[in-house]
Amino acid sequence: MGHELILTKDGKRQNITQLIGNLAWSSNVEALGVEMSFQYAYNDTLYFNKFDILNIGDQIVMFNEGKVLNYFIIVKEGEAGRFGKSYTCFDRAWYLNKNETIIQFKKLSANKAIEKLLDKFIIKHKIASMPTLIRKIYKDITVSDIILDILTQVEQETGIKYRMEMKKDILTISKMTDLIINPKIRLPSNTNPIPVTATISNPSKERSIEDMKNKVIVVTSDDKSTKVYAQKDDTKSISHYGLLTEVVTLDSKNAAQARNIAANTLKELNRVNETVSCEMLGDDDIRAGRILEMNEPITGIVGKYLIKSASHTVNNDIHKVSVELGAV
Which pLDDT value is given to residue 254? Predict the structure, then answer.
C-alpha cells in the first residue's frame, strides 16, 4: 500500500495519492514542525477540472500501510503555466508559530507552565515532568517561542535536553534520551529485517571547534548594573584550544541557579562537534530530534547520533531519507 495522502474536506475523505508526485517531507532540530511538499497533477482542460480540489487551508492526512502518520495543513500553492501545481504543507505545530499571546507564570513547574499555555489554545498535549520553576511574564511572543524559552531554562538548570514535536494532533515533549530509535526494514519483503542504518550510502563526516566554548560566565543584568553570579572553565581545554568564552545573562529571579547553569552550559559547549551526513532507505520514525545507533566503521561513524535534520522522499514507491547527524 505504501504512503498515501488523504484530503479531508467538508466531512469527506478523498484519496489523492494517484494525482501526486515528488512527495517529500522534512524536519529539523531548529524548526518546530514537519514540512511536506508534493506536485499535483493538473491542467486547465475540461477533463481535469473535477480534480482541481485542493485549496490553501485544507487538511491532508498522511498514511503508510493504513496507519496515520501525521496531519498537515496546506499553506502554500504554486502554479506554473497550464500544467501542474505544487503544494507546501506543515503539520499542526505550524499554528504554534502563528499565535502570539500574553501570559505570566509565578513559580510554576515547567511542564505545568507549558500545559497551562497549551490549554489556553485548546491544544492536546503530553508533556514530560520538568520540575524547573518558571517565573516570567511573556508578552506579544508566539506560543512556540514561549515553549522553547521554557525548555532552554530547563536545559540550563538541569542539563537535560527535551524535544518538542507534534504527533498527529498531540504536542509531545520528551527527553531526547528517551527518543532512541532502531528502525528496521526487510529487503526483500520475505527476508529477515535489518537495521535501516545498515543501508547507508554517501557518508561524510566533519569535525569542528567553531561552536566550542571552554569558559562560561553567568550574569544578571538590569538597567543599572551587571553582576557576575558564577563562572566555570576548563583549563585543559583552554590550554589546548585557546580561550573561548560564553556569557549567559539571567533574570535576577533565576540567579540562585547560576552555578548549575554555568556547569551545564560548559558541559554542553566544551566539545569538538562532529557532524555526519548520509543517505539511507527511509523509515517514518527517522525524524529530527531522535537518536540513531550508527555502525559504519569505514568512516568511523559509530555510536549514538542525534538526528539534526531528516529529508524524506518517495518516488516510484521507493522511500529514501537524507540525514544530518550530530554525535551524542
Answer: 67
